[in-house]
Specification:
175 residues, alpha+beta, Rieske Iron-sulfur Protein, three-stranded antiparallel sheet, 25% strand
Length: 175
């Protein structure tokens, strides 16, 4: 018996190719969710991601509030008077002694960046309120100066500083 091979594809060849293609698609469809579930959740990525803030629209004497990692961040463009008043305070008279120079970046003394959460019970203080032209916590009366240092009230510590860096004179990266 003699067999001859034809150069024409047969139905059997088509079934082999079709079966292989369906198997490949099935393998990818099965592997895709297993691989993608290993990626972090979008909310997790967003929660820890640094943010860039453009400082150019913030007028002198104005404070804005942005959110980073779910926390309010106050960015204050302090006036020359506010900077001078903050630097004139004797550090030894403060409940949580820290100089104004230690709370701002050198060369950018007019910019104050603080986490806007009262160190007493976690309330959100109001900017440009109180006796020291800084922050006032209406819940229990804590008052912070224009450098975010506790000056009066039950709060035990200064407003915390977030990690930040100047990318240029008009832009900062928080985080």
């Amino acid at each position: 018996m003699t067999t001859s091979t034809s150069a024409e594809p047969t139905r059997r060849d088509f079934l082999y190719v079709a079966t292989g293609a369906v198997a490949a698609v099935g393998a990818v469809a099965t592997a895709w969710p297993l691989i993608s579930q290993m990626n972090p959740d979008a909310s997790t990525i967003a929660a820890g991601a640094p943010i860039d803030v453009d400082l150019s629209p913030i007028a002198q004497g104005q404070a804005i509030k942005v959110f980073w990692r779910g926390k309010p961040i106050y960015i204050m463009n302090r006036t020359k008077k506010q900077v001078e008043e903050a630097r004139a305070v004797p550090v030894s008279s403060l409940p949580d002694p820290q100089s104004d120079q230690a709370r701002v970046k050198e060369g950018h003394e007019q910019w104050l960046v603080v986490i806007g959460i009262c160190t007493h019970l976690g309330c959100i203080p109001i900017a440009h309120e109180g006796n020291y032209d800084g922050f006032f916590c209406p819940c229990h009366g804590s008052q912070y100066d224009s450098s975010g240092r506790i000056r009066q009230g039950p709060a035990p510590a200064n407003l915390p500083l977030p990690p930040y860096a100047f990318l240029s004179d008009s832009k900062i990266k928080i985080g």
